[in-house]
């Protein structure tokens, strides 16, 4: 009798945790793709949470301070993907470095970024 | 010079390997002379690793740039403090630091545990020497800190300027020492399993080590959060980065252990569970070191090396399968001696606390490794964001805090629900009143209201309980209330250290909740003289200023802050352009009050002097740091050596068999005094 009460309690806790984990996962899970993969699958990625990894194309960066808009292209080999981001330019944002862009793909094939993670190879190892 | 260092490491590896086997066979075969030589091997390896550390420190101080490690992390104008802390700035050095701490802890164990647990120490030493040998193997093969360049550079590259912060001096060593500290409880757990001495002896040996590791991990994490907040310039302090998670997960499991161990010592319950917690927290510490240093999971902390991966995989498989296999094979000796018999009792609340802590750890673990797993097995890398971690952990942590409050009010197995409700009455009334006031004042957010109930309730519950104990002790001893309180506190350090830690968690929770529910952010670009308003603050941009210093160019913005019409502060967010580093470093300007932080980041500017700012108002965030200080104090009080009073009764003793188990020294004293008439004046 007593054992069963604890069992029921334990199951309720586990179900609650599972439910929270499930909704959290649905809300935040994102495909982690390269520029090439994103361009290739663009039609099926509409509206999905994405994290796209690529290099900042040299000469493509337009940073408009007065409207706080950052536009640039990401590249992977020959493939290119335009990105628009509303917000200030991150510190280590330089051409030819790796970035991860978090956001969505719009219908014209432009990434609308919510967040830009500059991937310094390491905070520890200066490059 | 580097030959001496490398030679010392190599000999230390030989000594530690010898010691591992000599301890293992010596204690199995009861061979005293083998054990003596094993002990010599342990001491020798400690001396040799210490020598290697001294050599590296000397090289760092004397700018021996021929050694690659020295030229990578220091330069001629690195100050002494950062030269010394360069010991843990890079992969090789931090592994050496790890090995050094392991060898020192092992030496402390054999020198301080001569009488107690004499049978367990050889087994435990074998385990610690095995762990040490693994790290020494890494150091002599793929991570040699003494590796020499083919030429001598005229100057080193210097420490990354982002690391030049007091955080660098305390955060890495605290976390590393915390990780290493977990080796000792792990070693004693394995020793108990190995030798089949599964009584409670091994627990006595590990309580202080677990507490020390737990305190260091906790403080290390808090300093890391503070460092990220003041230095990294994104306005937050915790991002559920894999490496942050790696520091948090073992801490959560050790927290669970520190509670379950009390139940095991008093009532002989949860034995397998307690053992599993110790083993898993060590496994997670190794796993954490591994993901910090490998490219498996992307992280801001990563060292970007992968030659060590195969070593770590093999080591992790050995310790994980080995320890859990051991545990499984000795299961029969770890039967519980009692059942959780009352729903409202400290046992059941500890059980709940353990389930919640383990559940939270599991969820964090899944979220951390999910990208790697989905890529390995599903072919698509799927990452989970902060929302995942926050959504699961916010309610879990709130419930954990609530349980901490309830369980402070409860006794061991003995309390009636009525007595318990009476103890709860005042805290509950005050808290309800507070929630009503907040609601009337306009707080409507669900989480905020729940938190506004839980946090003050738990805080008050602990304070009331504390006060009741002081009053009780005064009634018994008839002293001044302050003297009685201080005496009680000092005599029961583990208990009141625990109270302080619980209070600190509530205080930190207030900081976390305030700054995550009510934070406001604004990205704005301003021309000189323009202003912007956020949360009642008016910020006027006075212009940009450029200064040249010998090692860097500093661009700063003059920002005057007004509240309504009243001037309150000048803030000066800056960006540094170090000559030796391409990447600029943002120096945020923060104005802290007890109510909220105004956090201003200079994000960029263009040729005509228009500057872009990110401005945040983070409510209550200072309470996170204040809570951190209380946590440290409480932890030190609980850890303070020399446990006063009588140790907890053994579970097989007559006292423990009865249902009325007195909780601590205080209750025992009180009873003793009651039995003696005439003590009361």
Give a structural overview.
The complex is a heterodimer of chains A (127) and B (681). In chain A, 26% of the residues lie in helices and 37% in strands. Chain A has 127 residues and is α+β, with helices and mostly antiparallel strands. Chain A folds into two domains: 1-30; 31-118, Nucleic acid-binding proteins (OB fold (Dihydrolipoamide Acetyltransferase, E2P)), CATH 2.40.50. In chain A, strands 2-4-5-7-6 form a five-stranded mixed barrel. Chain A is elongated. The model of chain A is unreliable at 121-127 (pLDDT under 50). Among the domains of chain B are: 1-164, Up-down Bundle (Four Helix Bundle (Hemerythrin (Met), subunit A)), CATH 1.20.120; 173-334 and 342-384, no CATH class; 520-622, no CATH class. In chain B, strands 3, 4, 5, 6, 7 and 8 form a six-stranded antiparallel sheet that branches. Chain B has a four-stranded antiparallel sheet with strand order 2-11-10-9, with helices on one face. In chain B, helix 6 (120-141) packs across helix 8 (183-195) and helix 11 (271-293) packs antiparallel against helix 12. Chain B is globular, with a radius of gyration of 27 Å. The chains are: A alpha+beta (127), B alpha+beta (681). The interface between A and B is large, with 46 and 65 residues. Strand 1 (30-34) of chain A pairs antiparallel with strand 1 of chain B, so a sheet runs across the interface.
């Amino acid at each position: 009798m007593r054992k069963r009460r604890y069992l029921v309690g334990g199951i309720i806790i586990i179900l609650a945790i599972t439910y929270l984990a499930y909704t959290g996962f649905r809300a935040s899970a994102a495909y982690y793709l390269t520029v090439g993969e994103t361009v290739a699958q663009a039609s099926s990625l509409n509206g999905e949470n994405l994290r796209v990894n690529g290099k900042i194309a040299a000469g493509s960066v337009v940073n408009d301070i007065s409207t706080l808009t950052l536009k640039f292209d990401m590249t992977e080999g020959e493939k290119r993907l335009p990105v628009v981001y509303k917000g200030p330019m991150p510190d280590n944002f330089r051409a030819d470095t790796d970035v991860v862009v978090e956001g969505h793909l719009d219908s014209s094939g432009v990434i609308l970024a919510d967040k830009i993670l500059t991937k310094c190879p390491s905070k520890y190892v200066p490059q | 010079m580097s030959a001496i260092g490398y030679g010392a490491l190599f000999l230390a590896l030989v000594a530690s390997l010898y010691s591992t086997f000599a301890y293992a066979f010596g204690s199995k075969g009861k061979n005293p002379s083998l054990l003596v030589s094993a002990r010599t091997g342990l001491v020798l390896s400690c001396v040799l690793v210490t020598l290697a550390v001294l050599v590296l420190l000397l090289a760092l101080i004397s700018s021996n740039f021929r050694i690659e490690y020295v030229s990578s992390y220091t330069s001629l104008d690195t100050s002494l403090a950062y030269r010394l802390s360069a010991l843990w700035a890079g992969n090789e050095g931090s592994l050496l630091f790890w090995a050094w701490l392991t060898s020192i802890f092992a030496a402390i164990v054999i020198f301080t545990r001569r009488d107690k647990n004499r049978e367990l120490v050889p087994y435990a030493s074998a385990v610690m020497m095995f762990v040490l040998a693994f790290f020494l193997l890494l150091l002599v093969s793929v991570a040699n800190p003494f590796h020499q360049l083919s030429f001598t550079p005229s100057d080193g590259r210097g420490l990354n300027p982002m690391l030049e912060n007091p955080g660098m001096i305390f955060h890495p060593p605290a976390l590393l020492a915390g990780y290493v500290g977990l080796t000792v409880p792990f070693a004693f757990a394995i020793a108990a399993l190995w030798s089949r001495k599964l009584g409670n002896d091994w627990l006595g040996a590990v309580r202080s080590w677990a507490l020390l590791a737990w305190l260091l991990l906790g403080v290390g994490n808090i300093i890391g959060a503070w460092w990220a907040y003041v230095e990294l310039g994104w306005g937050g302090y915790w991002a559920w980065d894999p490496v942050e998670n790696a520091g948090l997960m073992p801490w959560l499991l050790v927290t669970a252990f520190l509670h379950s161990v009390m139940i095991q010592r008093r009532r002989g319950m949860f034995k397998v569970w307690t053992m599993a917690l110790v083993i898993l927290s060590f496994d997670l510490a190794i796993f954490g070191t591994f993901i910090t240093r490998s490219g498996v999971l992307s992280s801001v902390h990563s060292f970007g090396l992968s030659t060590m991966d195969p070593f770590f995989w093999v080591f992790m498989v050995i310790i994980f399968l080995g320890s859990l296999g051991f545990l499984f094979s000795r299961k029969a000796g770890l039967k519980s001696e009692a059942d959780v018999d009352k729903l409202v009792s400290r046992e059941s609340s500890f059980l709940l606390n353990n389930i919640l802590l383990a559940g939270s750890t599991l969820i964090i673990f899944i979220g951390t490794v999910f990208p790697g797993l989905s890529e390995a097995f599903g072919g698509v890398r799927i990452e989970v964001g902060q929302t995942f971690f926050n959504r699961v952990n916010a309610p879990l942590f709130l419930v954990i805090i609530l349980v901490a409050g309830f369980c402070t009010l409860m006794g061991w197995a003995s309390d009636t629900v009525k007595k318990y409700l009476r103890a709860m009455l005042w805290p509950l009334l005050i808290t309800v009143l507070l929630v009503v006031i907040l609601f009337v004042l306009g707080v409507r957010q669900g989480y905020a209201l729940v938190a506004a109930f839980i946090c003050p309730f738990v805080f008050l519950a602990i304070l009331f309980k504390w006060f009741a104990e002081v009053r009780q002790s005064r009634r018994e001893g008839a002293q001044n209330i302050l003297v009685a309180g201080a005496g009680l506190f000092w005599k029961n350090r583990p208990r009141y250290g625990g109270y302080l830690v619980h209070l600190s968690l509530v205080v930190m929770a207030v900081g976390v909740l305030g700054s995550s529910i009510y934070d406001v952010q604004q990205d704005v670009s301003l021309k000189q003289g323009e202003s912007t308003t956020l949360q009642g603050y008016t910020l006027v941009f006075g212009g940009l200023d450029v200064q040249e210093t010998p090692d860097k160019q500093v661009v700063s913005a003059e920002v005057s802050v007004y509240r309504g019409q009243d001037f309150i502060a000048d803030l000066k967010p800056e960006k540094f352009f170090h000559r030796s580093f391409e990447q600029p470093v943002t120096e945020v300007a923060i104005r802290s009050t007890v109510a909220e932080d105004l956090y201003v980041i200079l994000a960029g500017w263009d040729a005509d002097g228009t500057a872009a700012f990110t401005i945040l108002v983070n409510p209550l965030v200072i309470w996170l740091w204040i809570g951190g200080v209380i946590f440290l104090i409480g932890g030190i009080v609980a850890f303070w050596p020399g446990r006063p009073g009588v140790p907890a009764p053994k579970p097989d003793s007559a006292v423990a068999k009865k249902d009325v188990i007195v909780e601590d020294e205080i209750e025992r004293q009180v009873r003793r005094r009651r039995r003696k008439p005439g003590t009361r004046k």
